[in-house]
Recover the amino acids of this structure.
């Protein structure tokens, strides 16, 4: 065996050259690996004794993608197109032997080979779209030649992976090897060599492209079906252009088009935002400064108190991953209702093909209903999700302190109550933590983990581990009013209401934000979630008033479920329609304040909604309520619909430039008051010529 370099070696078995790659952990296509691979192909092809070549990887996977740390840096080593020239040149067949995941550039390498053999558990995908990119090494041109245009559109615009069976059925691979992959691939290579050439290259297989030309409408149909989801995003639209080129242009011209469109994406703010976010999400999982002894403990059983909107969804998260849950309610009626909702949710998923009847029963069997708080006794983790009422929560935590076993974590799902105050009624405030799930809790990925004053490090570490286990994206935050996400949302909400009173309407405000990329505007969201009623009931308890909210509630405008809220809804439809009654209420609100309504430009609406968010976020950072600016972006993308391809509010602020934002805020401050007074952190960063990305909390 010849070692070519650190990453590649060359071996011969009978008449088959075997190139083995080894670049743990995922055999990323780094410059060193490309150099070794290219040299291995050169040597293998130079030896006339070799009748075929097998390319295989050591470790847990085939090449699982590009080395994304190389993006945006000057290129080093051979490019992929040179490498593919080396793979495709000559007449002997090249067989890729694939196990694990062939992803991105890795799958593109496999596509440059003549044949592909894979383990039954192998998976295949071109996930570049998830980073705002497209497969830029021929993936958009070669994949459709093997699998056809429809399958290629589905795979490349979603970035989702397919399994070996689907890959075989669609023509992506030639054989599934159920035994030893290396031996199987060598045998396959010998068979192909014996059969004799020519061995067509994927680039020359045009039959599926010619067939696609007969149905030119296929692209528009696909765009029509998915265009709403792609709104504002460059990558999926560029991918479609590449696929059209695959069908309509000769291969080399298609490659040139792919190259051009890839360059546009790589330099775009959208892809920069998505690559930034990829790292932001991973960073959020790291908690600096935890004591090294603070090891996460294993959570084997969970108890949830309250089977309402949140408790039910939280319960599902645990049952979904096989963790038994005791679900405790105050009375049989609420317990039955809660269990019924959980079952219906599972049945809905099953009806869409996501679960089998057996799965539903298994998950339901993991949920043990109870009416006794004492039943928390066996749980390693307890999550309270009863009504948002301090007296009630204190009562529950006093009892939990009595019933919970030593070493249990006492979590609360409160949205706004002071967790230090809740912790103080127990004899073990170090075990108390906020676990702030978002509604619907079985769907929303975000979990704000709220560290209270006395929360122990192991409780934080365990909560972060639990979040991962139940497939949530967690961010650690501190105790303050609204924590991080809702506190920033309130800053936006206050301005939004001022804008209504000065002259805007809900539909204009929603439009400004959906055009920016939010999936829905705040008023449509309020109608969907029942926020008008919630706010109204809360104000009735506190005696507070809000003319617009109260007027809507008094007219029974409780949102979508009532057929009317900030909008009007036709029976059976969720489409929000502007409503003259709402306009009248808003105008009356302006009259009552003596304000003459004026048309407000979209740009002003946008700045007045978003700049207070950025300002509030800066205060949150200065108060150490979030660990880093990028955590705030993770919270807003996963919890509040900030478009991922815009990176989050902090990334956005840096992109616009903090100085520009600060200067505009000073103008707005003169007009609309101190909510626009730039936060001290913004002033400091501007003075230093820095952005949020440079911000590091003082140790
Ligand atoms: N709804 C949301 O969007 C949302 C989001 C995040 C956090 N939260 C918070 O989650 C908590 C629960 O909210 P929700 O929307 O699920 O409320 P909900 O009214 O839907 O459910 C509360 C449940 O708690 C039960 N309950 C009340 N007292 C109890 C007791 N003593 N013992 C056992 N069960 C009892 C009730 O019967 C009810 O089923 C609140 O603290 C809320 O602020 C809500």
């Amino acid at each position: 065996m010849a070692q070519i370099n650190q990453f590649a070696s060359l071996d011969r078995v009978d008449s088959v050259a075997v190139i083995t790659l080894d670049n743990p952990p995922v055999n990323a296509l780094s410059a060193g690996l490309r150099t070794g691979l290219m040299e291995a192909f050169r040597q293998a092809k130079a030896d006339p004794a070799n009748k075929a070549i097998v390319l295989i990887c050591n470790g847990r996977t085939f090449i699982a993608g590009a080395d994304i740390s190389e993006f945006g840096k000057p290129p080093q080593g051979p490019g992929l197109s040179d490498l593919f020239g080396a793979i495709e040149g000559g007449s002997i067949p090249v067989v890729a032997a694939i196990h694990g995941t062939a992803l991105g550039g890795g799958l593109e390498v496999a596509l440059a080979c003549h044949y592909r053999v894979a383990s039954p558990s192998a998976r295949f995908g071109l996930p570049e779209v998830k980073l705002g990119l497209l497969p830029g090494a021929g993936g958009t041109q070669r994949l459709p030649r093997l699998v056809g245009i429809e399958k290629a559109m589905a795979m490349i615009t979603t970035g989702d992976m397919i399994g070996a069976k689907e890959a075989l059925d669609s023509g992506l691979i030639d054989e599934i090897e159920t035994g030893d992959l290396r031996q199987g691939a060598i045998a396959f290579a010998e068979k192909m060599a014996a059969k004799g050439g020519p061995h067509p290259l994927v680039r020359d297989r045009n039959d599926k492209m010619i067939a696609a030309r007969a149905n030119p409408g296929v692209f528009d149909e696909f765009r029509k079906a998915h265009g709403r989801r792609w709104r504002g995003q460059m990558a999926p639209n560029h991918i479609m252009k590449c696929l059209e080129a695959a069908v309509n242009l000769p291969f080399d011209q298609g490659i040139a088009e792919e190259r051009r469109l890839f360059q546009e994406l790589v330099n775009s703010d959208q892809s920069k935002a998505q690559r930034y976010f990829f790292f932001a999400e991973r960073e959020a999982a790291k908690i600096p400064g935890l004591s090294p002894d603070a090891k996460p403990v294993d959570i084997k059983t969970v108890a949830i108190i309250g089977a309402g909107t949140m408790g039910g969804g939280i319960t599902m998260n645990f049952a979904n991953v096989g963790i038994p849950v005791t679900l405790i309610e105050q009375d049989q009626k609420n317990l039955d209702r809660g269990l019924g909702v959980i079952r219906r949710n599972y049945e809905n998923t099953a009806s869409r093909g996501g679960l089998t009847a057996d799965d539903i029963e298994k998950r339901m069997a993991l949920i043990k209903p109870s009416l006794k708080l004492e039943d928390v006794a066996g749980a390693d983790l307890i999550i309270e999700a009863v009504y948002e009422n301090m007296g009630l929560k204190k009562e529950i935590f006093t009892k939990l302190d009595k019933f919970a076993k030593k070493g249990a974590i006492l979590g609360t799902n409160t949205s706004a109550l002071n967790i230090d105050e809740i912790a103080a009624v127990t004899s073990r405030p170090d075990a108390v933590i906020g676990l702030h799930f978002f509604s619907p809790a079985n769907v929303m990925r975000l979990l704000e983990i709220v560290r209270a004053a006395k929360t122990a490090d192991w409780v934080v570490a365990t909560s972060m581990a639990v979040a991962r286990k139940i497939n949530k994206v967690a961010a650690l935050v501190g105790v303050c009013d609204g924590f991080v996400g809702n506190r920033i949302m309130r800053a936006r909400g206050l301005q939004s209401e001022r804008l209504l009173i000065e002259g805007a309407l809900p539909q204009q405000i929603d439009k400004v934000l959906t055009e920016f990329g939010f999936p829905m505007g705040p008023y449509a969201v309020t109608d969907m979630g029942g926020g008008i009623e919630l706010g109204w009931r809360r104000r009735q308890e506190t005696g507070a008033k809000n003319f617009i909210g109260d007027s809507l509630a008094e007219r029974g405008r409780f949102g979508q479920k009532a057929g009317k809220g900030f909008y009007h809804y036709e029976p059976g439809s969720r489409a929000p329609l502007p409503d003259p009654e709402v306009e009248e209420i808003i105008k009356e609100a302006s009259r009552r304040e003596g304000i003459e309504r004026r048309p407000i430009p979209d740009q002003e609406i946008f700045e007045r909604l978003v700049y207070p968010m950025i300002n509030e976020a800066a205060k949150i950072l200065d108060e150490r309520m979030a660990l880093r600016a990028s955590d705030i972006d993770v919270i807003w993308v996963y919890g509040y619909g900030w478009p991922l391809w815009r990176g989050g509010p902090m990334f956005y602020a840096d992109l616009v430039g903090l100085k520009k934002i600060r200067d505009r805020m000073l103008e707005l401050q003169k007009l609309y008051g101190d909510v626009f007074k730039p936060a001290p952190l913004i002033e400091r960063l501007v003075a230093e010529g820095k952005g949020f990305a440079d911000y590091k909390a003082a140790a």
